[in-house]
Amino acid sequence: MSPMRLIVLAVALVAAVVAAFLVRNLAQPTVVSGPTQTVERVVEVEVAQQKVLVAKTDLRVGTLLTPDEFKWANWPDSTLNPAYYTQEIAPDAMEILTGSVVRSAMYADEPVMPQKIVQKGETGFMAALLAPGKRAMTVEISPESASAGFILPDDRVDIILTQMIEFSGNEDLPPVMVTKTILENARVLAIDQTFGDVDGIPTLTGSTATMELDQTQAELLARSARVGTLSLTLRSAADAGFNEGEALANVVALDEVDSGGRKVMIYRSNKVEAGGT
Fold it and tell me: pTM higher than 0.70 for the full model?
């Protein structure tokens, strides 16, 4: 064999050994010392949304709605109910629903639906305005007996009864005029047929006032309207929490004379508390 051929074979052998070494190293995994790091890839998917009218806070039954109770919130199209008020279809829904009454309780961020509210003029508006267990009772008023028109819907009032008491069986006793507060902190639902907001009018003169009372208080008010004159006195807004926001009955009635004297019965919360002559 010639020397040239031996040289070529030697070079080929060296090249084969180097290639085998490189292939071996590439086939083995690379070991990296130290803690490993996991790279997370966040994929953003755009979801179609619309602005939906929702309750800003929890709303109890009977709440008279104002713009402060609403807000527009993003809502996915995939869960959009046709009954929802959307900003695209009803951009003035907030103004239209102002003055409505909550028929069914709603929670914060819950979409407003027609089935859960009663709008002005709809059947059942007054019934929805009443708190559970309450009754609506209407009495006649005049500017003189209702603070000259400054009593407005949702105000709190005291109701005063003025009556003349005549004593039978003793002609020497002249009639006595008795004035007493019979109800305290009663809520005014309406003046005539005006509910809620009165469009910025500073006074509202009417001939009737509708009050929110329980059944026993309504009976007391009906009886009192028969025997004397009723007057309404406006309470401070700071007193709305008096008696936990409930109207309080408190009446003094004079019975017929017994043995020439006056027999007085005192009622508090519609229960006889004391008596005497």
Answer: no
